[in-house]
Design a protein that fits this description.
Elements: E1 6-18, E2 22-34, E3 41-48, E4 54-60, H1 63-68, E5 73-77, E6 81-82, E7 88-96, E8 103-109, E9 116-120, E10 125-129, E11 139-146, E12 150-152, E13 157-159, E14 167-171, E15 179-185, E16 193-195, E17 209-212, E18 217-220, E19 228-235, E20 242-244, E21 250-251, E22 256-258, E23 267-273, E24 276-280, E25 293-295, E26 298-300, E27 303-305, E28 308-310
Antiparallel strand pairs: 1-2, 2-5, 2-6, 3-4, 3-7, 7-8, 9-10, 10-14, 11-12, 11-13, 11-15, 15-16, 17-18, 18-22, 19-20, 19-21, 19-23, 23-24, 25-28, 26-27
Pfam families: IL17_R_N
InterPro entries: IL-17_rcpt-like (IPR039465), IL-17_rcpt_C/E_N (IPR027841)
Keywords: Signal
Length: about 325
């Protein structure tokens, strides 16, 4: 028996709603095959990969059809399987009787419906469309900042089932990679769907640098979760490499702060993540706060030492990149 007897297996999710029973999520199974005189029918089985629970349905092919329409293509529609959101299923299609090697398999993840959206950068708004799966249900949509949980970035908007428009506009104030669009049905224990339109726009994270004249501290606080390291570095030229200052590396978690920092334009911050390295030199920017007098910062393990300097002085050698083993500089002992 040719393995090409079974041609395609198509799976899709539909929502069935009735006035008395409410709405149920169903898996629709469709198949196409080539008729054969020995083929009596088809069987489709759906198995949950988590619980191993299996549901099967079969469709019979009349004997007269097999004989008259042999080698003709046939479309088969099975009754729907009842499923739930986020189920991971393994669906198998077999012949009746089962011919060795003639079988189609497919894995399927039951989704809660995809959110479709458009970004209007001119008006700083995200237009979201309620998934067609939930067209007969009330549906919530909101913007949130995804940290450990997705924190509110605006009030949820309720789109009722009888609304003339199933599209809503959600304004945003800043483009952030962790700014996400979240939607869920207005039903108990509804699964929430998230999509983050700006997840590739990470450059804005490295610009969140502040200088505090009172404490002479240079700080960076990311607006989104970042995994990596932050360090001070020294850049000798506009396009040259930025060499790390020893003992200045910090985990990129929460607020990273360096006290008593000299406001030299060559002093920069380096951000190292799995996407590569980014360097920001804030004191090269016109208008970035800087003191008329400042102090040099020596970053040591667990302590900081400093020497007075004026605005136009060149950093002492101990602030510039040195080979390993240079610490402490001569005449200066960490406190």
């Amino acid at each position: 028996m040719s393995r090409l007897l079974l041609e395609t297996l198509t799976l899709s999710t539909v929502l069935k709603c009735t006035p008395h029973d409410g709405c149920a999520l169903l898996l629709r199974v469709q198949a196409s095959l080539t008729l054969h005189e020995r083929l009596r029918g088809l069987e489709a089985c759906s198995t949950s990969l988590y619980t191993q629970e299996t549901q099967c349905q079969s469709v019979r092919v009349p004997r007269v059809s097999r004989q008259l329409q042999a080698r003709q293509q046939l479309q088969v529609h099975f009754n729907c399987f009842q499923v739930s959101v986020a189920q991971h299923l393994h669906v198998t299609l077999r012949t009746i009787p089962h011919f060795c090697g003639v079988q189609l398999d497919q894995q399927y993840l039951v989704e809660a419906g995809k959110l479709h959206y458009w970004v209007d950068r001119r008006h700083k708004a995200i237009l979201a469309q309620v998934p067609a799966t939930f067209r007969r249900l009330d549906y919530y949509v909101r913007l949130c900042l995804r940290w450990f949980t997705c924190e509110d970035a605006g009030a949820p908007v309720l789109v009722t089932a009888n609304s003339s428009s199933r599209t809503v506009s959600l304004p945003y104030s800043q483009v952030l990679p962790c700014l996400c669009l979240e939607g869920w049905a207005a039903a108990p224990d509804a699964v929430r769907v998230q999509v983050c339109p700006f997840e590739d726009d990470t450059e804005v994270l490295w610009d969140a640098i502040r200088y505090h004249p009172g404490s002479q501290a240079l700080s960076w606080e990311p607006a989104c979760p970042v995994s990596g390291q932050v360090s001070l570095c020294w850049r000798l030229g506009p396009s040259g490499p930025c060499q790390d200052l020893q003992y200045s590396s910090r985990p990129a978690q929460g607020i990273v702060q360096y006290p008593l920092v000299d406001t030299q334009p060559q002093l920069c911050l380096k951000f190292s993540t799995n996407l590569g390295s980014r360097v920001r030199c804030p004191f090269q920017q016109r208008g970035f706060p800087a003191l008329l007098t400042s102090r040099h910062a020596c970053v040591s393990e667990g302590s900081h030492s400093f020497l007075p300097a004026n605005q136009h002085s060149r950093p002492d050698p101990f602030l510039q990149p040195q080979p390993k083993g240079w610490w402490p500089p001569q005449g200066l002992v960490p406190g």
